[in-house]
Amino acid sequence: MMQLNHLPDSEPGEEVVLFLRRHWIDLVKVFLFTSLLILVPVFALTVLTFGGIQVFENPLGGALAAVILSTYAMIVLILTITELTDYWLDSWIVTTERVIDIEQLGLFNRVLSEVHLSQIQDITSETRGLFGTFLTFGNVFVQTAAEKERFQFKNIDNPDQVKLKISELTQICKIHHHHAKTESSSLGSEV
Amino acid sequence: MTFPLWYILVPYAAILLFGLLFLFFNLFHLLRYGIESGKTLALMGVYVVSFLLVAGASLFFLSSFNWRQEVDPLQLLPFNPENTKTFGV
Question: For chain A, is the Cβ count within 10 Å smaller at the N or the C terminus?
């Protein structure tokens, strides 16, 4: 497991400032979808019963229906678990030195990107729609000078505050780097 | 033409194994890539418990049938005179 206080390739004194996941509304969507899937066989059995078809009275039909229902339940469970894993493993980490974007794309596809704060050129936050406005979730876009030009924080909580925090950290980082450059160039001129 | 009813359990067994495999994949991903915290461990516990509950409930449900009996696929057809009970005729 990854430890937040021991991130890979961390610099001395680097601290985690923000650890973000997608807003809980994405979990609600998963559970709503699961509930819908659960209702499908319930609806089908209700329709059959009202149509006068007693599925479980027939030895073969009943057994077949039982197997189909059991198989369906297992498939719905696995789909739900996989979606939950996808939600749980999607995360964004903002430290005092860098931004790390961890994106889980399905089960066997994972993209991990990072950019140093000094390479950040622009930060934009976006809140859209009724739910986004009232539940305060949205996207943050980070434009960089790195190989990956744009980082997107998808459906995170309080995108405006996240944007402000990253801006603040970026400013601090750039000032530190400027001071470090000035000191090393003045040392170099003395030599 | 009759066949033993347990034949139709074979695809279910395959799905159960497939489900177990995917449970393992999900647990592996959480263990390998998840952030070390109580919540991650709790989520893994939820996965295991949910799987056991669904598998247990379905096995309990399936155990109510006599799988050793021989069945005729024609039993499923509505115009089969033996199907008065199933189709309310």
Answer: C
